[in-house]
Amino acid sequence: MKWFSKISISLCALALSVITASACVLTIRVACPNDTTRSGIRVCVDGVDCALTDDVGVATIQVPGFGTYTVCVDASTLPAGATLSPLCQKIKVISDAPPLLEFALGGSFCSTPPPPGPCWLTGGGTIDKTKNVPNYSFGGVVYPGCSAKAADGGNWNVVDHYTGLHFQGQHIIVDGCSGVPTRSPKVTVNVIDFHGDGIVNSNGGDGSDTVAVTFEGRAVDNAESGGGSDMLYLKVMIGSTVVMQIGTSADAPATITTGNLQIHQTSCSN
Asked: CA 110 → CA 30, 37, 187, distances in Å?
């Protein structure tokens, strides 16, 4: 316990003193409202880098720090029959867990939804607030059922603004999907359980204080647009010591304050 207390103090101190060294990963999805999408759509962060979407329409790009970025989709790489307007969006990154940025395709390409496949999760938002600062910010993708090879099962980021800890779920496994059907998007389940391993360090730090962790989580997609309805449970551990927890248990997750948790069942290849 004393060993962990020293780690916590060190992480919190670094979170306050090394703010400018941050590097964050933006998660961008390009898809129709009914989840129809295509791999190979080119997405660029102005002045930073570009990436191609995978089978579920997701691209990830690392940005050098906090600030406002312009993200654009290359129209020449859109599938035949797909339209997109606007082609660019701005996103403000204020923590190491930026929200998911979504581009909604339109046109005849979106006329037929894909058949149901394995369930997966996209999400981003905040939970609770103290003195106008969220207690937690979260964002990312959980999708081993569709793209297990992409980012080793996805990426799930949570920042605890009280302690200054930044959790990164780096190797994710979906344990199961359950619950009731939902309409946006139209799927047969609304609960996803997952676990894996990753790291914690200081929000905005240089990574020198990184510690390996394991985690378990559950997301519940209750309604659109999510804030005040959707629910999240997450327990992050160093050995048997809990270093971050959202919700009391998987059966009693916390309700998100802003943002959205969305469960998908898109037909795609691994």
From this structure: 12, 8, 17
Residue 2: phi, psi to the nearest 5? -65, -40
CATH topology of domain 2-265: Immunoglobulin-like (2.60.40)
Cα angle 35, 69, 137 (rounded to 5 degrees) comes to 70
pLDDT at 2 over 70: no
Across 79-108, average pLDDT: 94
221-248 residues labelled b (16+ CB within 10 A) or e (exposed): bbeeebbeebbbbbbbbbeeeebbebbe
Element (H, E) at 69: strand 67-73
Structural domain spans, the chain: 2-265
**155 pLDDT band (50/70/90 cuts)?**
confident
pLDDT (0 to 100) of residue 148: 59
